[in-house]
Amino acid sequence: MSTSPPSASAASPTKVCVVGSLNMDLVVRAPRIPLPGETVLGGGYRTFPGGKGANQAAAAARMGARVSLIGCVGDDAHGPRVRQALEQEGIDLSGLAIRPNQATGLALITVAEGGENAIVVAPGANADLSAEHIGLYAKLIDACDVLLLQLEVPNQAVIAAAQRARAAGAAVILNAAPARALSAELLKLVDVIVVNRGEAARILGLDPNLDPARLALRMPELGPLTAILTLGSLGGILAHRGRPRRIPSLTVKAVDTVGAGDAFCGALAAGWGVVHRAAQRRDAEEFALVEQAVIAASVAGALAASRQGAIPAMPTRAEVQTHAAGLTMR
After folding, report:
1. Residue 11 pLDDT exceeds 70
2. How far apart are CA 98 and CA 111, in angstroms?
3. Closest to 233 in 3D by CA, of 210, 261, 270, 211
4. What are phi and psi of 58, to 5 degrees?
5. Secondary structure of the chain: what % helix, strand, coil (to 5)?
6. What is the pLDDT of residues 315-324, one digit of tens each?
7. Are 297 and 264 spatial neighbours (Cβ–Cβ below 8 Å)?
8. What is the structure's pLDDT at 6?
9. Ramachandran area for residue 109 (φ above 0: left; ψ -120 to 50: alpha; else beta)
10. Catalytic residue numbers?
């Protein structure tokens, strides 16, 4: 079986609308993550446009999707730089609001040797994203095949966007990060939930040391048809229509894991349009299409982890197709 995403000639580009955060990432490399109360002398320091919403939008665009983004930036010096980075990816920013007298979201990131990271986010203008803002730009959601959400913006905006997408017949993908309690109202609007082990355990109220396959299989009980539990370099677990599958991982040398999960989610959204249409028809190809989309997402995440930064690290569709060849689920 081919593990490449459907080609552009086989299907029109997926239209993805991302509702989420935009930040400026301030990244310091260090030998290790500091312990509480400890100071560690770092090395190189760089700034990158980022934020889960922006990262995932860029990842989906590089995978060939037609992407729009709904979110907020401040009127400070960081806002134009973040906007410019996304414009260069060909992303529709007509849903991006500039908040006067507000700072653009800021992420303070420490990256240790081996690529692991610790992140503190100051939401800034992201905290102003509201249900009313979603209503103003609802046409972007109405036109999409897939709505991609995360949790770095207020709950009311996330729920309003999911409600609009469900009414329009679009697929709703939720990356439930950063971890927090989720309402039953939101979970019932979600088609695909993407979580790591800790996030899954928190949402389910279970021990994070449980077998990850058990955690993944419990997630659909909350509403989503599909649950994906990511396990970093170990790949992940897919639970789709009650069937658990092991997601393979591409072996890479991790340089910077910031944005790797966002690369996974953006690539998944880019490939999920055809899955959603097949699922609605209960097409016989549905499970094969799910496998293609999830393997492509896993490869995208691994490739992003092998590079520095978030948006600059996002791989292209061609790169993912090359590295996905021969990977299968089990």
Report:
1. no
2. 30
3. 261
4. -65, -40
5. 40, 25, 35
6. 999 999 999 9
7. yes
8. 44
9. beta
10. 262
Give the pLDDT confidence score for residue 273 in this predicted structure. 95
The highest-level CATH class for domain 15-22+52-69+130-319 is alpha beta
Cβ burial 85-105 (10 Å sphere, 16+ → b, else e) = bbeebebbbebbbebeebbbb
Record the pTM: 0.92
| pLDDT the model gives residue 114 | 77
Domain boundaries in the chain? 15-22+52-69+130-319
Nearest to 52 by CA among 95, 82, 22: 22
Other CB atoms within a 10 A radius of the CB of residue 43 amount to 10
Number of H helices, E strands in the chain: 11, 13
Structure confidence by residue, pLDDT tens digits, 261-296: 999 999 999 999 999 999 888 888 999 999 999 999
Length of the chain: 330
Of 14-18, 157-161, 205-209, least confident by mean pLDDT is 205-209
Beta bridge partners of 117: 111
Q: Strand, coil or helix: what is 83?
A: helix
Check whether 8 has a pLDDT greater than 70.
no
Q: How does strand 146-149 pair with strand 117-122?
A: unpaired
